[in-house]
Design goal:
13 helices; 5-stranded parallel β-sheet; TIM Barrel; 350 residues; 5-stranded mixed β-sheet; 40% helix
Length: 350
């Protein structure tokens, strides 16, 4: 792992928390939540370190597909590895969240189209205050019942999508509403060849940070999904990362992370439990939302069993995800090899 980027992420997270604490002087509810969140993060990190000493690895993040997602769909992959069957129930997710908290996971990223319609699952978040639940929000976020849900479950962290520089006005208004309500939130800016320069422009970033955008993700879906027309070429990606590094110096109170481009500086792909793994809506454990290969199921199995499943272990030990291919998705660059690792290694899919 690159010590410089790792240190930047650690410092950035701490800086965001401290900045939010300073701005919460007259908001005791948010101030109390932030202090509790910092203590929970420290306690979870200690659990993960204790597990490492015993030869067990626990990632700090899970990605939970509460509903299916068009963003993660892979029509080019023809296989029967979706896990199949009925969607996980709220009781199933409760069991998974409880184990996540117990073993030292810090955050569960909730994903899926129409996610806010699964209020039965979202309402469970407040019952696990040691976990943070970031989720990709849609236009229904500001309905009264959803605002009320977030007020009662402060560990639900909305991530607002910014489609490009032209959509910032609308998003900035939403960010202002969240800030005035004392909510903690993040921002996701999808990167394309057309907008890569505009969304790293100093004026754009100033407006984003001034509106409260302190944690900013830059997913490059063209690289993650193998869409050549929407993927940055090597020279454009190098220029994009150069501007992002400048932004990290110019805006020390914010955190910027590009995916998958930054993974090469983090020691390669973080999938298959190295840094996270994905649970699809039917309970199948997949290395990553963009690598839909299921080696075991959490319908009846445990998180620890998934992390130690033959497929995940083989994938982590194979070296296939050690280095991203030209800033793109490492697993996609080795899809045939990844698929071959599944042979004889699928468990508990009945």
């Amino acid at each position: 792992m690159s010590k410089s980027l790792s240190a930047y992420l650690s410092r950035g997270a701490l800086s965001i928390f401290n900045s939010l604490l300073r701005s919460s002087l007259f908001n005791p509810d948010r101030r109390g939540f932030l202090r509790s969140a910092m203590k929970s993060a420290e306690a979870a990190a200690k659990k993960r370190k204790a597990a490492e000493r015993k030869g067990e690895h626990v990632p700090g993040l899970l990605i939970a597909g509460i509903t299916s997602s068009r963003v993660f769909s892979r029509p080019d992959v023809e296989n029967d590895l979706s896990g199949g069957g009925e969607a996980l129930s709220a009781a199933d997710w409760k069991r998974i969240f409880a184990e996540a908290a117990e073993i030292g996971v810090s955050a569960v990223l909730l994903t899926g189209d129409g996610l806010l319609r699964r209020r039965d699952v979202l309402a469970l978040a407040g019952r696990f205050p040691s976990l943070m639940f970031p989720f990709f929000a849609d236009e229904t976020l500001f309905r009264e019942e959803n605002i009320a849900l977030m007020r009662s479950c402060r560990n639900l962290i909305p991530i607002l999508r910014v489609e490009g520089a032209g959509s910032l006005d609308k998003t900035a208004r939403a960010m202002s509403e969240l800030s005035s309500d004392g909510a903690v939130f993040g921002v996701s800016v999808a990167v394309t060849p057309e907008n890569a320069r505009a969304v790293t422009d100093s004026a754009f970033l100033s407006r984003l940070v001034d509106a409260g955008g302190r944690a900013v993700l830059y997913p490059e879906y063209g690289a993650l999904r193998g869409d050549g027309a929407r993927r940055l070429d090597p020279s454009d990606r190098a220029a994009f990362l150069g501007r992002l590094n400048t932004a990290r110096k110019d805006f020390p109170g914010a955190l910027f992370l590009a995916l998958p481009a930054d993974e090469s500086s983090l020691g390669g792909c973080m999938a298959a439990g190295k840094g996270f793994f994905y649970i699809n809506p039917c309970g199948g454990a997949e290395p990553c939302p963009f690598a839909p290969y299921v080696g075991c199921s959490l319908k009846n199995g445990s998180l620890k069993a998934a992390l130690n499943s033959p497929f995940f272990v083989s994938l982590r030990e194979s070296g296939l995800a050690d280095a991203a291919a030209d800033g793109g998705c490492a697993l996609r660059a080795h899809e045939k090899e990844v698929a071959s690792l599944l042979t004889g290694k699928r468990e508990n899919l009945g």
